[in-house]
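Review session, final week

We close the course with one last complete record, chosen because it touches almost every idea we covered. It is Phosphoenolpyruvate carboxykinase [GTP], mitochondrial, a protein from Callithrix jacchus with 662 residues. Go through it on your own first, then we will talk.
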Amino acid sequence: MPASFLSASRQPRLWLASSRSLFPRLPYLPGSARFRGYPAGAMAALYRPGLRHSWHGLRPLGWPLCRSIQTLRVLSGDLGQLPASVQDFVERSARLCQPEGIHICDGTEAENTATLTLLEQHGLIRKLPKYNNCWLARTDPKDVARVESKTVIVTPSQRDTVPLPAGGARGQLGNWMSPADFQRAVDERFPGCMQGRTMYVLPFSMGPVGSPLSRIGVQLTDSAYVVASMRIMTRLGTPVLQALGDGDFVKCLHSVGQPLTGQGEPVSQWPCNPEKTLIGHVPDQREIVSFGSGYGGNSLLGKKCFALRIASRLARDEGWLAEHMLILGITNPAGKKRYVAAAFPSACGKTNLAMMRPALPGWKVECVGDDIAWMRFDSEGRLRAINPENGFFGVAPGTSATTNPNAMATIQSNTLFTNVAETSDGGVYWEGIDQPLSHGVTVTSWLGKPWKPGDKEPCAHPNSRFCAPARQCPIMDPAWEAPEGVPIDAIIFGGRRPKGVPLVYEAFNWRHGVFVGSAMRSESTAAAEHKGKIIMHDPFAMRPFFGYNFGHYLEHWLSMEGRKGAQLPRIFHVNWFRRDEAGRFLWPGFGENARVLDWICRRLEGEDSARETPIGLVPKEEALDLSGLGAIDTTQLFSLPKDFWEQETGSHSHPDWMNYSG
């Protein structure tokens, strides 16, 4: 594999425009050219169809005669002030994508205001006057969730990315694409894809700027919606460039895939190209390429693309963990504080748990993060975690003052909503918000149509989102941005299991806990494109996010046990979603989940409050504090039906699952 995957052996010459003629410039020197140094502060880029374009490592060939030239301008910022490697990335990407201009984002409030104003002027967002600086975006109905089927990992060997099940069966833990096929896909999509649009340069830090646990990326995008969202979700702007210096960074290239060429109007107000959507990751080169989607999970490349798929490879190579986990601090009435990381599949309650208001008197929960955890052992053997994100990208439906009052408080200002419903008084609305509509207030659905309670179709898309700054959450942990991270005492796995799986159980040891995480199954949700409620294998809640072969991932987790001096967290499994025969939930959930955390904390203190079962350690009778809850069917809640577990173990001995490990 070449030094950079997207390197190529041929590229077009640069041409400069003057009032008199076209003339060739001297051969391009990587890292030395400056757009601002060209005549009138402009550069002309020429794309030659059939040639392979790339970000770096290109050699100029030929001196074509052509009179069709597109000039590029630096609209904001100074390329000359960027680190040489960032300049090279920007310049080569601009020659490939041919944007109308380049904007280097500084992350200031003034820039953010201008970005939101631009989006509003173009009809891509609407101001919500009921709140302070809140906005609503409506996407194309075809661009509403992560597209797992079009998300690929690119490695020379297929086994580097995915296990190879026996008999040629197709695995379910990621999609592999060969370098040659990926190069063809890039060549078919990216040349000229930003014509008529601005290329935004987003330097961002995953994790607190300057933390030894943090990593830096640079995203190039032609979407102002992405700019506004990334400013919320990451630390973005000039301070990141100062911290980067001459260091390494993850290269991220994104385009909505809808150039403005003047040849007809876009089909949709929301720019996207669903038929050509592709999200590619090149872990060997620390590169991400996304095309055709503006939805956050596909376009905010610092989230799942960087923070999980690329970071999980970084973590394996460097001896740490990048996981799909919330991080919370919980303090008991005696003042003893513990930190817990918990892995749930998307839309299974991570945000609700991370922001929980405990129903038990005297208990306090504080949020470090609601979605992703980067964890590394310190010099004393403690596993420490940071939240690499800077905001919340939460699922709106089901969020209410009852289920998550802290989330509702968080989103009252500086929030970008996507695909929720809008009320005529300038507010938002969705299923489960539990707020009665005032007299005379009407609702417009996420599709822009009139809606009223009782209508068959939902007013908000099931995967509609709020994007809000983490600092606004009223229960953010004082150490949520501590550069050294917080010490993790317990790891929890969980998913949506309507039958058979008890409310909580503890693993016997680290190896058993790794097995518990690897054997996770959960009912599918609206966070991806899957239809219907089916039980899917979702090991470690990472099924859509593995950056490399699951078997190697499993080995990496198991290897933690052999680290000298490692103080391994205890591992637990929870299931808030078990139902009775009538389909009713057996457990009230939400704030009452503090009762489960109470038992976990007491187990960490060494309390003898568990009994052994074939699947792990469950609470002894009356060990769970149920005071004030009323009638709870603990017998059914903790039952282990033999027929269910025979089927469950059978699902894990199926050849397609057994070969997940390669």
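Two points worth writing down before the exam:
Residues 302-318 form the longest helix (17 residues).
The longest strand covers residues 198-206.
Good luck, everyone.
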